[in-house]
Amino acid sequence: MGTASGLDHVGVCSRDAAALWGAYERLGFALTPVAQQSGGSGPLGTANCCAMLRRGYIELLAILDPSLPDNGLGAMLDRLEGALILALGMSDSEGNLARLRRAGIEVPGIAPLSRPVEPGGPIARFERLPLPGAPEGRVQLVRHLTPELIWRDAWMSHPNGARELRAAILVAGRPAESAARLSRLAGLPLEPDPAGGFALPLPDGARVRVLGPEEAARVMPGLEAPALPAVMGLVIGVEDLDATRAALSGVLHAEVPGGLMVPAAEAAGCALLFEA
């Protein structure tokens, strides 16, 4: 299948690892152990924790060792801290690479990435096809070579009841341009979004919504977008909104149509919308 298969994950990034990981623990997520990443040329200075969901996940990425290469993360953080990584899933790296090149997109090749799933544990391995020069951040296709190592039952039970990553909300000054880039990367068609703008439906049932600032502010009241285009919100499906509400009792949040919203300031730059 030479197209995207779903919404794999969104990466929320910060220079302050402890603050980033602590914020998501306060929001009721159970995080995986800290894992330092490696690229094709060796160890990287970046490390992550993840909130693994039954479908998709949230990566929480920071720079731990500035003396090592950071795979471009530092340059992205110079622009903005928040959801800088938008990763669509794929099952066929070679087929997608060929499709993108036929479309005139100059993807250098399949980029490897790996990390231990826990200190001293087995190594999770991935293949990536980054979209070159995307102003939205690190936008890419990702194939998991070892999915069984990271989607573990022990890591998918969250006090806030989170179960699935239903949507990423990308806010853009020129929504049509951002939506077209995502459609070309995914190899899938767009459709109108109910709030205005565009939606990219994905085969796993998730979607990427691409909205202008006014439309996005209606979906995420109080939205502040310091730099555009960028992913400014995530929609997370939960088991029981009452349980989620209880888990968020110590965190600033608001009731919104269909669920609860944690503003971006409480979630390291990316608003979270919890829906049943």
CATH H-level superfamily title of the largest domain: 2,3-Dihydroxybiphenyl 1,2-Dioxygenase, domain 1
Give the tally of β-strands: 16
- What profile does the largest beta sheet have? 8 strands, mixed
What's the pLDDT, averaged over the residues?
95
Oligomer: single chain
SSE topology string: EHEEEHEHEEEEHEEEHEHEEE
Cα distance spanning the termini: 31 Å
Secondary-structure content class: alpha+beta
Beta-strand content bin: 35-45%
Percent in helix: 10-25%
The parts where pLDDT drops under 50 for at least 5 residues are none
**Overall 3D geometry?**
globular
Task: Give descriptors for this structure.
276 residues, alpha+beta, 2,3-Dihydroxybiphenyl 1,2-Dioxygenase, domain 1, 2 domains, eight-stranded mixed β-sheet, 6 helices, 16 strands, globular
Describe this entry's structure for a reader.
The protein has 276 residues and is of the alpha+beta class. The chain folds into 2 domains: 6-154, 2,3-Dihydroxybiphenyl 1,2-Dioxygenase, domain 1 (Roll), CATH 3.10.180; 159-275, 2,3-Dihydroxybiphenyl 1,2-Dioxygenase, domain 1, CATH 3.10.180. The protein is 19% helix and 37% strand. It has 6 helices and 16 strands. Strand 10 and strand 11 (198-201) form a beta hairpin. The chain is globular. The mean pLDDT is 95.
